[in-house]
Amino acid sequence: MPALKHSLLSLRLLARDWRGGELALIATALVLAVSCVTAIAHFTDRLTRAMHIQSQTFLAAERLVNSSQPVDSAWLDKARESGLQQAETVQFASMLAAGDEFQFAAVKAVSDGYPLVGHLEMRARESDPSRVVQGGPPPGEVWLEPRLLPLLKLEIGDSLQLGDTQLTVSGLLDHEPDRSDNLFSMGARLLMNLDDLPAANILQPGSRVRYRYLFAGDDQALEQYFTWLEPLLTEHQRVIDLREGQPRVASALDRAERFLYLAGSLAVLLASVAVGLAARRYSLRHTAYVAVMKSLGAGRGKVLGIYLGQLAALTLIATLLGLLIGSLVQSQAVSLMADFFPVEPPPSHWSPLIVGLATGFACALGFALPPLFRLARTDPMQTLRRDWSNPDRREWLGLVLGPTSMLLLIWWLSGSLAITAALFAGMALLVGGSALANQLLIRGRLATLGGSWRIALGSLQRRAAFNTLLIAAFGTGLLAMLALVFARTALIDEWRMQLPEKAPNHFLINIAPTEVDGLQAMLANNKVTSTEFYPMVRGRLTAINGEPTKDRREQDNALRRELNLSWTDTLAPDNRILEGEWWDEAGEGRSEERSEQGVSVEVELAARLGLALGDRLRFSIGGLEIESPVASFRSLDWNSMRPNFYMLFAPGALEDFPATYITSFYLPPEQKLLVNDLVRNFPSVSVIELDKIIQRIRDTIDQVSLAIESVMVLMLVAGVLVLVAGVRASIAERLQEAAIIRTLGGRRRLLLHSLMLEFGLLGIAAGLLAAAGAEATLAVLSQRVFDLPFVAHPMLWLLGPLAGALLVGTAGTLACRSSVSEPPLKVLRELA
């Protein structure tokens, strides 16, 4: 019964305080905290899964098995038993014939059900718009990429010959989902039905063929199936997922996920600070009530029980309302942006609701509970006498419990110790500097100042202890927003730098030495700039310091295949010597053979193989062997879309071996037909077209960027919440002070100027500390979370104080405007 009475009393007091507006700020803080975190969690969950669904279209499946030969049929039977969807593709290069015209093409034969993820786009006539189809051509028919028609002098409805079979051209292929960096899938595409492949009789022993077995289905079933399959794979077979099939896209998605988790963590941080400020104000305003209750005989336990009941009821109501608002906000946000995403984001899981629920109770327990414990320990005599000379020595408990609960929640939400450590480092620097900044602000000599400056600095001095907390709170909000803005900018800039607007989008390979001059002239005549023409031979690394590498083939894929070897006397712009010497630094006129000048090895491969300068590498090239010492280690940018090589030799070192050349160039869409001219004039040269792949990667990165920028809007709401809570925390005292000053003759304009100066100074101090904290946070995030090199941000030190002065000054002045607008007599009566 006593417990029931306490509960009813708590609810009655809750209703009374709510009608009186006492709990409005703490309830608003909790609702906005939970709604922001819930909306971000929902939004992140849906967009992350939508981005993964879209990115899987790069494979046309969720996972696939890549093989150079057909796999055991038992593997496919096992997948079928596991309930997985299946499809199969066979890819190879072959000659097409149409009358007297012949043309090499990249042939792909697909089974029914292809693609499992994504779609095909084709046209039945050249003048028709593209339409989406969910399967490939029927048996007896093929779809061609448009540029094959003029090369073979065909029209839709004509027949062509592939091997021993005649096939009808029934459509034009405009889009296939799994264009990858596999050479078999480059060039002009012919898409056919897998059932027609045996009749073509084109695949013979020794043919270069790529078999791909596509799988999709339930995540758990996929994981169990591939766990069973992995031990059965040979060196000619491997499992490919998004991370291996499209590492650039996978990297962008990984970094985007980390950023979104960071945004959610910062939302928790901001929400916690807002709740803490609101709870502190609430407890201070109820100190007199508790003193009266204790004077009338209420014990500490009863008082604590009443306020805990209030807090529990308020937290539950605010959390449920926040969950509802957050869910509605994210639903509307996704609906508004539906046109920007190529796939509809799937429904959200229930996990974001758990995140929102945990956020509400963690904020309440960590930041609202300590002030209530302090409230329950109120000394009635000390309070009624207004004697604060003996402060509570257990005040530190609240300072520890709140940040600890917040950091634990951030750790759980982000799943990243690095993110938690980065935010902790930034906050520690910020809080540590708050006291110092506050001391600098209050040391002004009032006697030498007049007007609004005197009032502003006097207000800062009277609230010296509280201003330390306020600077830390404002600084935390600014730190979160600055860190998020600069992290977002760094991520998007990094992604776009990987694929600049005019990055090379076509490669030419298999160029004979006699064709180099002609190709260079043709490209120059069409105003197309290419990279350097690099000679290239294929060779296998067979020994390191005399020890055969055949026993180390599991150590690295580079030991299991032939490498592209090249030579040059000019270091490419994206290559940099990290250790050792380049040829032009090694001196001229050596008596040693050119091969003894050494080989420059890509630094990451060298690290994986444990190479050191001077190690001797033996290569087998066409049955002949060559040995060369390691002369240097070299970094390079694999994302530059330029020809790059693990191994570069000195000029002349490989001149005894037959070589072909390779180059890359950017071709704008309006010059696309130049590819046909290249193929006609140089039929032995292979053209690798990457323009469609690069455009799809850019589209994916743009979608990820849109998701990040959408979350930024929600973060601004949380940041404004902190500013409002911080300003409102001292509104009662300011109302009283303003009323007294106006009663003594102070003008409204004077008070407004003093408010602007006071909050402006607080904002500048908070902005400077936020800049320092954000710089420290970004340093950790860049290197530990986003895998980016750290770059100093000078603009932080300018934007931090400016943003602080503008945001805090404006918010403080507007929030306290009523203190200078209300009639002084009315204010003094209400406060009395």
Write structural notes for this entry:
Helices cover 54% and strands 16% of the residues. The protein is built from 26 helices and 22 strands. The strands form 2 sheets. It has a 6-stranded mixed β-barrel with strand order 2-3-9-6-8-7. Strands 13-15-20-17-19-18 form a 6-stranded mixed β-barrel. With 832 residues, the protein is α+β, with helices and mostly antiparallel strands. It is elongated and about 105 Å long.
Output mean pLDDT.
76
Spatial order of strands in the largest sheet = 2-3-9-6-8-7
The biggest sheet amounts to: 6 strands, mixed, barrel
| Helix content, binned percent | 40-55%
Can you give me a brief rundown of this structure?
This protein is of the alpha+beta class.
Pick out its properties.
single chain; about 850 residues; alpha+beta; 6-stranded mixed barrel; 26 helices; about 55% helix
Q: Secondary structure elements and their pairing?
A:
Layout: H1 2-19, H2 24-56, E1 63-67, H3 73-81, E2 85-98, E3 101-110, E4 120-123, E5 131-133, E6 141-144, H4 148-152, E7 159-162, E8 165-175, E9 189-193, H5 197-200, E10 210-216, H6 219-229, E11 237-240, H7 242-245, H8 247-285, H9 287-295, H10 300-336, H11 351-376, H12 380-384, H13 395-414, H14 417-442, H15 451-462, H16 464-498, E12 506-511, H17 516-525, E13 534-544, E14 547-548, E15 563-567, E16 576-580, H18 583-586, E17 599-602, H19 603-609, E18 616-621, E19 624-635, E20 647-649, E21 660-665, H20 674-681, E22 686-689, H21 691-728, H22 731-743, H23 748-785, H24 794-815, H25 817-821, H26 824-831
Helix pairs in contact: 1-10, 2-8, 2-10, 2-11, 2-21, 8-11, 8-13, 8-16, 8-21, 10-11, 11-13, 13-14, 14-16, 14-23, 15-23, 16-21, 16-23, 16-24, 21-24, 22-26, 23-24
